[in-house]
Design brief:
mainly alpha, 52% helix
Length: 129
């Protein structure tokens, strides 16, 4: 399974490889934490691409109109709205990047305490629910 995910060029799998390049189980699921449940849910949704960002909602069949091409799934700033975009470059979340000093998805998921990562992801995704 790891080989098929590693070899795939689908946008979901490429994002997952950015988030979890070593294909490890997150400590959110293995250790006991005092992380709020809604933060854990947001964290899991981000790992599974089960959120309401345009990169995902554009995949859904819209009353027979089919998928929206990825290049048309835009953020309010006019860029393609992907997980990487909202976390690393969208002006809406500049304050979070400044507050926590992260610059990419891998850094957010791997270099911060898990409770901080979960909270930041919750803050990002909650704007799109």
């Amino acid at each position: 399974m790891v080989q098929s995910v590693s070899a795939s060029n689908s946008s979901r799998r490429m994002t997952y490889r950015q988030i979890n390049p070593d294909f490890t189980i997150s400590e959110v699921y293995t250790n006991k934490h005092t992380i709020k449940e809604q933060y854990k849910v947001a964290y899991t949704r981000s790992r599974l691409s089960a959120h309401s960002l345009a990169c995902e909602t554009g995949r859904w069949n819209r009353r027979g109109r089919g998928r929206i091409p990825l290049e048309e799934r835009l953020s309010v700033c006019g860029q393609v709205q992907t997980e990487a975009h909202v976390i690393t470059s969208c002006p809406l979340f500049q304050h979070l990047r400044y507050l926590h000093s992260f610059s990419n998805i891998k850094e957010l998921f791997k270099s911060f305490p898990i409770n901080v990562s979960c909270k930041v992801i919750y803050d990002v995704l909650s704007l799109y629910e």
